[in-house]
Amino acid sequence: FVSAVYGLVGGCRFLLFFLVVGLVAARSQVLQRWWPFAVITPATMVVMFGLLQEFVLDRNFLTHFGYGPDTIAAFQSVDQKTDDARAQSLLRGPNPLGAYLAFMITIFTGMFYKFKSYRFSFGFLIGGSALLLYFTYSRSAWIGLAISLAAWALLAIKDKKVLKYLLIGGLIGVLVVGFGVYAFRNNDNVQNTIFHTDETSSASSANSVRFQAIQDAAKDVVNHPLGQGLGSAGPASARGPSPKIAENYYLQVAQEVGIFGLILYL
Predict the structure, then answer these.
(1) What is the DSSP letter of 1?
(2) Are β-strands 85-86 and 76-77 bridged in parallel, bridged antiparallel, or unpaired?
(3) pTM of the model as a whole
C-alpha cells in the first residue's frame, strides 16, 4: 500500500503541479502581467552562478551552504574525473540543471523571436544558458533541447520559408555533430563528453548497466502490457520486495500502468 501511494504521488506530481499553476495563472492578473520577470530573474541567477561555478569558484564552494556527502554533492564529475566537473549551479545535480536550461533556452528563444527591442539581452541569456548547458554534460538535456526547439519552431513560426530554412539548418547541424562525433570517436575529450567514458576508465560498465536496465524494463512492459500496479517500478518499488529501476521514466510509467496508461499519460 505504501509503495502504491508513493508511486501515485511520484507519477502524478508533474501533472498536478502544472494543473495548479495553470489554474492560478489563469486567474491571477499579477502573474499574467509579471510572469516574464518571474521566469527571467531566477533563470538569470541560476545561469550567472553556474558560469561563476564553472570558471571562477572553487568546486567545493557549495559546501559553505550545506552541500556535502550527507545532503547533495557539492559537485559531480564525468567518469569520476575531477578535471571534468559537471555544472549544477544551485540545483541538485547536473541533469536537473540541464533539464531546466533546456526549458529556459526554449523560453528565451521565443522571447528573442517576439520582442525585437530586447534581442541583445535574450541573445546574451541564450548564449550563457547554452554554454552552461554544455558544461552539465547532460546528454539527455541536449537531446531534449533539440526536440524542444524543433517543437517550438513548428508551433510558433508562421512564415513557412523561415521555418523551412530553420529546419534544414537544424538537420544539417545534427548531421555535422553526428559526423564529428564519429570522426573523433577515439579522442578522449569526445569520449568523455559524449560517452562519459574513455579507454582508461571503468565507466563503460555503468553505461552497460544502465542500458541493461532499460532493456529489462522494456521486456517487462512487453510481458505485462497492462501494467503491474502503482509502485511496482521506480523509486517507489524500493519499498517493496523486488525493486525495478528502469533508468527511463516513461518505461517506469508503462511498467506501472501499462501501455495504454502510458499513452494516456503522454
Answers:
(1) -
(2) antiparallel
(3) 0.80
**Residue 53 contacts residue 93 (beta carbons within 8 Å):** no
Q: Are 97 and 85 in contact (CB under 8 A)?
A: no
Contacts of 166 (CB under 8 A, 6+ apart): 153, 157
Q: State the residue for C-alpha cell 504521488.
A: 9
pLDDT per residue rounded down to tens, the chain (266 residues): 777 888 888 878 888 898 998 898 888 888 888 888 889 999 999 999 999 998 999 888 988 888 888 888 888 887 666 667 888 998 988 999 999 999 999 999 999 988 889 999 999 999 999 999 999 999 889 999 999 999 999 998 888 888 888 888 888 988 998 888 888 777 777 776 776 665 556 555 567 778 888 999 999 999 999 998 888 888 888 777 778 888 888 999 999 999 999 999 88
Type of residue at 204: S
**257, 230 contact by CB (below 8 A):** yes
What percent of the chain is helix, strand and coil (3-state, nearest 5)?
Answer: 75, 0, 25
**22 membership: H or E segment, kind and range:** helix 2-27
Cα 172 to chain centroid distance, Å, stands at 23
